[in-house]
C-alpha cells in the first residue's frame, strides 16, 4: 500500500523529536564556570598513528602522498607574494558534495590492527577481522574540536554537531548551520577572491619535494590534502581525530616538524593587534595545539592581497599573549569546556545504534541544546559500508 505523506495526521513526517529527557541544556557562559582550579586539565600529547591523503579528485589514499615541504623564502622580512595571481584558474573543491567523516572511516577500515588490544592481537586473522570495537571514546575531524575549544569565547558563529554512538564509540560530525549556509550563498566576488588568498599563500612557500621549488605558475587547488591522524586523551576521554597539515619542515628542530600556514592583514595599530589576538589567535592556537604543531608561519598581507613579510609564531607562546590582553581568552577555560562538553555527550547519547543521531546545536551566547533525530534524518552520517560488517 502506498503511504501518504501529505495527511495532517501523519506524524512520522516529523523526524525531529525534541529531546525531552533528564539531561539539561549545557551552559557555555559565564566563562568563569570553566576556570576550575585554574590548572590545565590532563591532555595527553597527541601522537600520530597514521595519515591520509586526498588527491585532486578527493579520492582517499592511506598514505602520505600529498604531504608538502616548506620552502622558506631567502628573507622572510622582505617578500612579495601576490596572492591574487592565478585566481581565475583556481580549481575549487565541490562544496555541494558533503563528505561527512567518511575519509576518517576509510582510514579506520584500512588500519583496524591499530585498534586491537594486546590480548586481541594474539587471535587468528579471522577472529581479529570480526572485532569492531575501537576502544576509543570519540572520533571526529580536528576542525570540530577547534570549534568546541573556542566556544566559550565565540560571540558570532554557532555550530551544529551530530553525534552517533556506535559500538561504544561516539562519532561526531559537523553540519553547516542555517546562518553558515546563507553566508556561503551570499559570498561576494571580493570575499571569494580573499578566500583564494590563503590557498595561494601555501603555494608560494611549498614544494612537492624537500629540495623542490614552489611552482607559482600552476593552478591552485583546494582539493588535495594531507591529513595527520592522531590519538590523544582529555581527562577521561580517549580521542581519535584527523587534521589537515599544510607542510613539513625537515629543518625544524622540534620533534614534530609539521607547520601551519596562515595569512592575515598586516597589523597597523594597537587596536588591530588586540583584535587579532582576541579573535584570530585563539583559533590558530586551538587548531595547531590540538595536533601538536609547534610552528605557525604567518604571512602579513596588504589590502591588495600582497604578502610583504612572514613571521614564525610559536604555538605554545600564543596563550601568554592572550593573557596579557584585557579580557583576553584563557586556554584553561577552552580545555575545561571541551572536557565538560564531551562528558555531556556521553551522558546524553546513550543509545548505541548506527542510525540514531543526537543533534547538538549552539548559537552564541546561548546554551547547547540537543534533539534526537530519527533514523533516516538528513543528519544521519555513518555510511552502511562502515556499519554493515559490524
Ligand atoms: O568538520 C570538519 N572540519 C570537516 C573537514 C568536515 C568534513 C571534511 N573536512 C575536510 C576539510 O575539507 C579538510 O580537507 O577535512 C580536512 C581537514 O579537516 P580539519 O583539519 O579538521 O579542518 P580545519 O582544522 O577546520 O581546517 C584545516 C584546513 C584549513 O586550513 P586553514 O588554514 O584555512 O584553517 O583544512 C582546509 C584548510 O586548508 N579546509 C578546507 N579545504 C577545502 N574546503 C575546507 C573546505 N571546506 N575546510 C578546511
Ligand atoms: Ca592553513
Automatic annotation (TrEMBL):
Q: Which family does it belong to?
A: Belongs to the DXO/Dom3Z family.
Q: Which InterPro entries match?
A: RAI1, RAI1-like_fam
Please tell me which top-level EC class this enzyme sits in.
hydrolase
Q: What is this protein called?
A: Decapping nuclease
Keywords assigned by UniProt, alphabetized: Hydrolase, Metal-binding, Nuclease, Nucleotide-binding, Nucleus, RNA-binding
Q: What is its EC number?
A: 3.6.1.-
Q: What does this protein do?
A: Decapping enzyme for NAD-capped RNAs: specifically hydrolyzes the nicotinamide adenine dinucleotide (NAD) cap from a subset of RNAs by removing the entire NAD moiety from the 5'-end of an NAD-capped RNA.
Task: List the Pfam families hit by this protein, alphabetically.
Answer: RAI1 (PF08652)
Amino acid at each position: 500500500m502506498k503511504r501518504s505523506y501529505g495527511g495532517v495526521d501523519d506524524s512520522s513526517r516529523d523526524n525531529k523529536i525534541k529531546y525531552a529527557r533528564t539531561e539539561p541544556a549545557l551552559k557555555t557562559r559565564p566563562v568563569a564556570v570553566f576556570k576550575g582550579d585554574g590548572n590545565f586539565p590532563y591532555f595527553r600529547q597527541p601522537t600520530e598513528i597514521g595519515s591520509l591523503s586526498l588527491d585532486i579528485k578527493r579520492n582517499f589514499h592511506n598514505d602520505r602522498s600529498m604531504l608538502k615541504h616548506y620552502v622558506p623564502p631567502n628573507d622572510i622580512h622582505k617578500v612579495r607574494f601576490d596572492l591574487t595571481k592565478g585566481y581565475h584558474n583556481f580549481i575549487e573543491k565541490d562544496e555541494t558534495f558533503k563528505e561527512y567523516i567518511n575519509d576518517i572511516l576509510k582510514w579506520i577500515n584500512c588500519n583496524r590492527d591499530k585498534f586491537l588490544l594486546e590480548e586481541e592481537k594474539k587471535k587468528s586473522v579471522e577472529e581479529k577481522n570480526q572485532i569492531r570495537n575501537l576502544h576509543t571514546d570519540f572520533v571526529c575531524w580536528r576542525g570540530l574540536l577547534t570549534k568546541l575549544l573556542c566556544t566559550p569565547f565565540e560571540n558570532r558563529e554557532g555550530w551544529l554537531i551530530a553525534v552517533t554512538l556506535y559500538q561504544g564509540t561516539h562519532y561526531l560530525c559537523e553540519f553547516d548551520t542555517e546562518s553558515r549556509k546563507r553566508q556561503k550563498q551570499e559570498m561576494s566576488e571580493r570575499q571569494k577572491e580573499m578566500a583564494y588568498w590563503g590557498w595561494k599563500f601555501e603555494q608560494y612557500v611549498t614544494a612537492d619535494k624537500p629540495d623542490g621549488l614552489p611552482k607559482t605558475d600552476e593552478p591552485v587547488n583546494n582539493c588535495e590534502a594531507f591529513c595527520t591522524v592522531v590519538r590523544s586523551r582529555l581527562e577521561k576521554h580517549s580521542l581519535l581525530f584527523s587534521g589537515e597539515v599544510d607542510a613539513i619542515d625537515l629543518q625544524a628542530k622540534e620533534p614534530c616538524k609539521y607547520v601551519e600556514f596562515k595569512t592575515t592583514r598586516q597589523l597597523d595599530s594597537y587596536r588591530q593587534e588586540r583584535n587579532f589576538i582576541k579573535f584570530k589567535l585563539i583559533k590558530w592556537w586551538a587548531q595547531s595545539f590540538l595536533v601538536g604543531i609547534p610552528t605557525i608561519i604567518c604571512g602579513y598581507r596588504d589590502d591588495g592581497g600582497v604578502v610583504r613579510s612572514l613571521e614564525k609564531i610559536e604555538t605554545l607562546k600564543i596563550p601568554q599573549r592572550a593573557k596579557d590582553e584585557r579580557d583576553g581568552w584563557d586556554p584553561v577555560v577552552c580545555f575545561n569546556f571541551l572536557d565538560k562538553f564531551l562528558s555531556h555527550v556521553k551522558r546524553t547519547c546513550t543509545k548505541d545504534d548506527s542510525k540514531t543521531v543526537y543533534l547538538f546545536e549552539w548559537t552564541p551566547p546561548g546554551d547547547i541544546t540537543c534533539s534526537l533525530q530519527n533514523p533516516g534524518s538528513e543528519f544521519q552520517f555513518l555510511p552502511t559500508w562502515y556499519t554493515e560488517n559490524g
